[in-house]
Design brief:
Length: about 220
């Protein structure tokens, strides 16, 4: 897979390093030439010193040939512009954008070319809530420009889903169970998988289905 990363700060460089180690073809675009030279000696990927907010720079870097773009700069405005250009000008199949200020999360949607947005503050908050919350729905990640979320629910003693097979819950078509964590082991969900109290259930849900999922797994 060919991946272009905009921004060579600590986040962008860490992503580039991990993807390179996994065998992917990585291109990093950074507007600071001095930073590019320093990073080039640290990591053997393709480096381009250019402004990722400029169409001509992205074209010269070969953005039309990449499978994924990661807008990972420390500026939300830049990340939105990069995402929009990647999607509209170069038809990049998948665009992932970093959200620096959680107040700007609502902007990172399909209208700006964003397929998946990642907000570190929101993710950390969700992980804290996930660690302490039983019997509540916790959003972990946002997909499809905010139209779908990965959510986690730890089944409480009074959960309506306890001792019930997934197929019998009546889960709406706009939601699906993607994993169940039970006693520190992963259970791949099937229709006949019977949920138990204390299970951590991960679901992919659209915004329209969240209330129904809340009722099925948490109760009214």
């Amino acid at each position: 897979m060919r991946v272009a990363i905009a921004g060579a700060g600590s986040v962008g460089t860490a992503i580039a390093r991990d993807l390179h180690a996994a065998g992917h073809d990585v291109l990093v675009i950074e507007q600071d030439p001095e930073l590019v030279e320093r990073r080039r000696s640290e990591l053997d990927v393709t480096w381009v010193a250019a402004d990722a907010c400029e169409v001509s720079s992205l074209d010269s870097a070969g953005l039309a040939t990449v499978d994924v773009v990661v807008a990972a700069t420390g500026d939300d405005e830049d990340n939105l512009v990069i995402s929009l250009l990647a999607k509209q000008e170069f038809a990049v199949p998948r665009v992932v954008a970093r959200v620096n200020n959680s107040k700007n999360q609502w902007l990172f949607t399909e209208s700006w070319g964003v397929d998946v947005s990642v907000s570190t503050p929101q993710l950390l908050t969700a992980l804290v809530e996930e660690a302490v919350s039983v019997g509540s729905l916790v959003r972990l990640l946002q997909f499809q420009g905010g139209m779908a979320h990965l959510v986690e629910i730890t089944l409480a003693e009074d959960s309506p889903a306890g001792a019930t097979a997934i197929a019998d819950l009546g889960i709406p078509r706009e939601a699906t169970v993607v994993a169940v964590v039970r006693d520190d082991r992963l259970v791949v969900p099937r229709g006949d998988t019977v949920l138990q109290i204390g299970d951590e259930v991960l679901l992919l849900v659209t915004a329209d289905a969240e209330d129904a999922i809340q009722t099925l797994f948490v109760g009214s």
